[in-house]
Write a structure and sequence with these properties.
By secondary structure, this protein is mainly alpha-helical. It contains seven helices and no strands. The chain has one domain: Ribonuclease iii, N-terminal Endonuclease Domain, Chain A (Orthogonal Bundle).
């Protein structure tokens, strides 16, 4: 997964973005897209190649309740700095609201997505991969 993020030219889209200067909501916005891409890549390499099954399995891991489970699975692995980024995202004021999810799951998912976006912009691809793969393993066990 990590190599797929390091293709030539990929950094050209984000090389001037400083994650420390972005709001947690913006980090979550980016993290949502990065996380979904990682899950889609994971599903393609570990699962069925049938589009309907891919979609079902992918959406099962990218909704707020699954992201909450993912966060609980990796929480003990987070550094203090990563935990701070997660909490800033979780506690951020948002204009949107939870759709078919509890407000708690929605807030935790936003925190998780902020962490993903932050790690991505910091180019900590190995750490991002480590956390997501660990989370996937734990969520799929449950």
């Amino acid at each position: 997964m990590e190599e797929s993020l390091r293709k030539p030219g990929f950094d050209a889209f984000s090389n001037e973005l400083d994650p420390e200067e972005l709001s947690p909501v913006i980090l979550a916005y980016l993290g949502d897209a990065v996380y979904e891409l990682l899950i889609r890549l994971y599903m393609l390499s570990h699962g069925s190649k049938q589009p309907d099954r891919l979609h079902k399995h992918t959406t099962g891991l990218v909704n707020a309740s699954s992201q909450t489970k993912m966060l609980f699975a990796i929480e003990e692995l987070l550094t203090e700095e990563e935990l701070t980024v997660y909490k800033r995202g979780r506690n951020a004021k948002k204009l949107s609201h939870a759709k078919n999810q509890s407000i708690g799951d929605y807030r935790r998912a936003t925190g998780f997505e902020a962490l993903v976006g932050w790690l991505y912009l910091k180019k900590e691809y190995s750490r991002l991969e480590e956390l997501v793969l660990h989370g996937i393993e734990e969520v799929r066990k449950a």
